[in-house]
Specification:
310 residues
């Protein structure tokens, strides 16, 4: 096994992974419950690694924008946690759910408090609280992603946002249910508009690997200013490891060994604290909503390099 000693070895490792993925029979299917995503080619593949200084390496379609979807939950969580600190945890938990990401089951017997910030109910709470504090949660998110990625062209995909809104009854039910327990501040239609816009951000593997860098730098943004305390950065990485891939988090930790967050657009971001950040994209999803090729690629990355948090 080759052990990575410097960032200069990222590129050959990525190229080897891409070759292996290319030889692997395709599996998984795009998220067909969001019509705007259903037409994606499940065999598409891109992967990028960004080091702490902002150098980025990639293979495949690593510069092609895709629908970030739930990857954005990491950034809204960071933006809100930076503003209100531990008060946030009175409104959303930090435990794995063990249920699908859009489940209503636990909310009733847990009094409208979602299990964690990465299931849909939890992300709605975080977006709601960020919107209360900024007046424009999705705009705050987009500004942050543009700055951290160095790409001022990042934007919302209006077709995806409209598609999600037209098929958003489950999220509406989650929002209204939590509002009945007093855990939502804003009108639910306003919250849903913000949430669907948030999820519709289109960005590439390069953009997202760079934007995630503050978590590898223990809370420090690309310009050297501090967004999160050391403790807060640790908290987000920990929740990514235990909750970032929904009810497959245990298998992801077993195979990959890194904090990660998946999205139904086929993307996964991952963090090597103190070292680098990664983003991989391939739209073919497994039954739990995680990219089949993406998980396999991250598994190979940590196996080939010997890099993990364990």
């Amino acid at each position: 096994m080759a052990i990575m000693t410097s960032s200069s070895t990222f590129q050959p490792v990525l190229e080897r992974i891409a070759e292996e993925i290319e030889r692997t029979p395709g599996s998984g299917r795009p998220a067909d419950y969001i019509p705007a995503l259903a037409a994606c080619d499940p065999r598409s593949f891109g992967m990028a690694v960004a080091d702490l200084d902002g150098a980025v390496y990639g293979v495949g379609e690593w510069r092609r924008p895709f629908s970030a979807q739930s990857l954005t939950k990491v950034f809204t969580l960071a933006l809100d946690l930076a503003r209100e600190g531990d008060v946030l945890w009175e409104h959303v938990g930090r435990e794995p759910s063990g249920n699908p990401f859009n489940s209503l089951v636990q909310l009733e017997y847990e009094n409208g408090i979602p299990r964690n910030p990465f299931i849909n109910a939890g992300a709605l709470v975080v977006t709601d609280r960020l919107h209360t504090r900024t007046g424009d949660a999705s705009g705050e998110l987009l500004s942050f992603l543009r700055t951290e990625s160095g790409n001022p062209g990042l934007t919302f995909d209006q077709e995806v946002a409209a598609s999600e809104s037209a098929h958003g009854d489950r999220n509406a039910a989650l929002g209204h249910f939590m509002a009945s327990y007093g855990n939502i501040d804003n009108p639910v239609p306003t919250l849903l508009e913000q949430y669907f816009r948030q999820c519709s951000v289109a960005a590439s593997c390069a953009d997202l690997a760079l934007a995630t860098g503050f978590l590898a730098r223990h809370g420090i943004r690309a310009d050297g200013t501090r967004l999160l305390t050391l403790s807060q950065a640790k908290q987000i990485n920990a929740i990514m490891l235990t909750c970032g891939t929904y009810d497959a988090a245990g298998d992801f930790a077993y195979r990959v060994g890194l904090p990660g967050k998946s999205g139904v657009g086929g993307g996964i971001i991952a963090v090597v604290p103190g070292r680098c950040t990664l983003c991989v994209w391939s739209p073919g999803l497994d039954e739990r909503g995680n990219s089949v090729a993406g998980v396999a690629a991250l598994d190979r990355f940590t196996t080939l390099t010997g890099v993990s948090v364990f």
